[in-house]
Specification:
single chain; alpha+beta; Immunoglobulin-like; C8orf32 fold; Jelly Rolls; nine-stranded mixed sheet
Length: about 725
């Protein structure tokens, strides 16, 4: 982790602002009026703010930040109120249509910039200024007027920039000043330097006084954080540099590992700082064993009122003949029982009313995640299963070493069975023993107590496991016949089985969620809200309309799936269904089926036909020129395997050629591609398996990955020739 230089004591007389000699003194940014913000950004003596030249290496980028500046000023006023001022100034050269589309609208937010959190009252917005100008290639400047900023929604403004063209420079700033007199404030920000577009000149500054505690890092590859004291009362932290590349166009990156970034958190300290040593506010983390204990100790203990739910659960087991199942199976059953009680029981009510609340039968709000965890721990204690809590950061936001705050972690229960079981905070579709991919293979903390007492809670480092490719498999069984009425179309029947992480999103798109919830209501004998036998006549009519709209949406998802899988828009969807949900005890995958008639996959050449058989496997990862060579490590969500079993029924009177193009065998440490095609008794069989062995590879292994990725990318273009005999 990068640390700031030693504090430099600089007298006010010797200080010269980097922004120009006319800039106002520090600690007064909250006094800015609109004309002063305009001068600060557009009339600075800093020549970089007027740069127009794009480096030659970046001319193929969508856009380039010629200048990128953020400035925070978080100070305490004499009245003990808080003044939080923010200036952002961006100067962007537009080089292609995608950037033109992105930058043709500027959003002018009324929300606190920097994710302020506040304990007692809302931040009060005092000032909010936006300035936009467009510089044409001939140097003409067009400044938008305030009258142009008219599109508003919920207090936010969206400005459409007129007549913006490729080759233009858009130069805009936003200024905000927020004021608060009561509360404890935290200002935080996190972004990759050069995330969307490369940056030619970068400047980031934070000014505080000694009532604020600053945590700051730029990552292992980031520029130096400079620190100085201004006029003996302000701390200034600054990061600047030039020529930061973009990470956006690289395949499989997690920029917080390999690119420079800003991760900053500033919070008001309640203690009085009297000595010079106390006044030094800069440090890089608040992570400590004591802080971990303070944050998560409440989650470690069982819920005192969980006994009623546990007794209801035991009655459920007895009634369903499950009292004598193993304790491992009881834990699984208990998870689904609690998930229904806490999350799913009123899911349909919530969907119907769009209220955002899950209501118990007595009209109270659903219990919190803390209560859910406490109930799970109650059950673990009853089952005499040891456990600990695991708190880890989300993987894509950077390594454990760069944590600034405990708030950046996510927690789960780890049941210490022969094979550990992870209980994560459930959503409607969360399965048992779910360790989400975004916390796989991540270093963090484990909290445990030898006797279950909080006073004996200890903290150790731990690393979560990484799943295997086989656990995250997608298997497609595809049966293809020529349409009897139109031989230029194919009738396709498809079964897909999703396992592990691969079923996380499909559940939300393809499962009949109402039928799933009503089945849960039957299983656990709870009220089937919205069902025909439970609803009033008025609600029945309304529910018919609502369920019809839900089913229409579900059908559209299946139709989009068919179009995507077979890379053609000429799709007529037939029957479709989920064969199971992957969402109840004993189910560990999601199975769906759909039928369709597809055009665009057959070409006729004289008396012969060409089938685009490779398209039946859908699109594959392609490696463009920019990604062909690689120096950045490879981060993927999870290991995985894709299996295809395709049968194509060949009409009588035709022979098949082109099968050899589907026979591939590549297998190395990073993954594999095994494909075999055969013809037997009128049926072509193509079996393909593509495996990604790990969720991470060193950059030096990119050559091995290309060995199977490049031949796989050629599959969609492979064809079979059916020659008339």
């Amino acid at each position: 982790m990068k640390r700031a230089a030693s504090i430099l004591f600089v007298s006010l007389m010797a200080f010269v602002s980097i922004f120009g000699q006319n800039d106002p003194e520090y600690g007064k940014f909250y006094e800015f009026e609109e004309n002063e913000v305009k001068d600060f950004c557009w009339n600075s003596s800093n020549a970089n703010t007027r740069d127009t030249v794009v480096p030659a290496d970046w001319r193929n980028e969508p856009a380039v930040y010629l200048y990128f500046e953020n400035f925070y000023e978080t100070i305490r006023l004499a009245s003990k109120a808080h003044a939080i001022s923010y200036i952002a100034h961006y100067r962007i050269k537009i080089l292609d249509k995608s950037a033109l589309d992105d930058l043709s609208e500027i959003h002018y937010s009324q929300d606190p910039v920097g994710d302020y959190s506040l304990n007692y009252m809302n931040v009060i917005r005092q000032k909010n200024y936006l300035g936009i100008k467009v510089i044409k290639p001939d140097g003409t400047e067009i400044v938008l007027k305030n009258d142009d900023f008219i599109e508003e929604k919920d207090g936010d403004k969206k400005v459409a920039v007129p007549n913006l063209e490729i080759g233009d420079i858009i130069d805009y700033y936003q200024y905000t000043y927020d004021y608060g007199k009561v509360g404890t404030y935290v200002v935080r920000e996190q972004f990759v330097i050069g995330g969307n577009y490369p940056i030619k000149h970068f400047n980031y500054q934070l000014l505080t006084n000694k009532h604020w505690d600053v945590m700051f890092t730029t990552g292992k590859n980031g520029p130096e954080i400079k620190e100085e004291i201004i006029d003996k009362k302000y701390y200034k932290f600054s990061v600047s540099g030039s020529d930061f590349p973009s990470s956006a166009r690289l395949l499989w990156t997690m920029p917080y590992y390999d690119f420079p970034y800003i991760k900053m958190m500033v919070k008001e300290e309640v203690k009085n700082m009297k000595t010079k040593e106390d006044a030094k506010s800069y440090r890089t983390t608040e992570i400590s064993n004591d802080k971990i204990k303070e944050t998560f100790s409440a989650y470690y203990i069982q819920e005192a009122k969980a006994g009623n739910e546990w007794n209801s659960f035991l009655r459920y087991l007895k009634k369903n003949g499950k009292s004598n199942i193993t304790r491992e199976k009881k834990l699984e059953e208990y998870f689904y029982f609690l998930r229904h009680r806490f999350k799913n029981m009123h899911y349909i009510y919530d969907q119907y009313n769009n209220s955002g609340l899950y209501l118990d039968d007595d009209g109270t709000r659903q219990l919190s995640s803390l209560a859910f965890t406490g109930h799970m721990i109650y059950g673990l204690n009853k089952l005499k299963i040891r456990y600990d809590l695991v708190a880890v950061p989300v993987r894509r936001f950077g390594p454990f070493d760069d944590l600034l705050s405990v708030s950046e972690t996510s927690y789960m229960i780890r049941a210490k069975l022969k094979d550990p079981v992870f209980i994560y905070k459930p959503s409607v579709f969360t399965p048992y023993n779910d360790l989400p991919y975004f916390v796989e293979g991540v270093e963090g903390f484990a909290l445990s107590s030898p006797d279950g007492k909080i006073k004996n809670l200890n903290v150790k480092t731990t690393t979560t496991p990484v799943s295997s490719p086989e656990e995250n498999s997608t298997t497609q069984v595809i049966d293809v016949k020529f349409n009897t009425e139109d031989p230029m179309k194919l009738d396709i029947n498809t079964d897909i089985t999703y396992s592990g992480e691969t079923m996380r999103e499909p559940k939300e798109f393809y499962v009949d969620d109402f039928a799933m919830i009503w089945a849960e209501n039957d299983r656990y004998e709870t009220k089937k809200w919205g069902s025909d036998e439970q609803a009033t006549k008025k609600v029945q009519v309304q529910m018919e309309e609502f369920t019809a709209s839900k089913e229409k949406e579900r059908k559209e998802h299946f139709e989009a799936l068919a179009k995507g899988e077979y890379e053609t828009d000429d799709i007529e969807l037939g029957n479709y269904s989920n064969l199971n949900t992957g969402n109840e005890p004993g189910e560990y995958d999601l199975k769906i089926n759909f039928e369709c008639t597809a055009g665009g996959l057959v070409k006729k050449v004289g008396n012969n036909y060409i089938i685009k058989a490779g398209q039946l496997m859908g699109s594959q990862v392609t490696i463009d020129e920019e990604n062909m060579e690689r120096t950045v490590d490879i981060y993927m969500n999870y290991p995985r395997v894709f299996n295809y079993a395709i049968t194509i029924n060949i009409p009588e009177g035709y022979e098949v050629s082109g099968l050899e193009g589907f026979n591939v065998s590549v297998n190395n440490a990073t993954g594999s591609l095994i494909a075999v095609a055969e013809y037997n008794q009128g049926v072509v069989t193509i079996k393909v398996s593509k495996t990604y062995t790990h969720n991470f590879e060193d950059a030096e292994n990119w050559g091995l990955m290309k060995e199977f990725l490049i031949p796989a990318s050629a599959f969609p273009s492979k064809e079979l020739l059916l020659r008339k005999i």
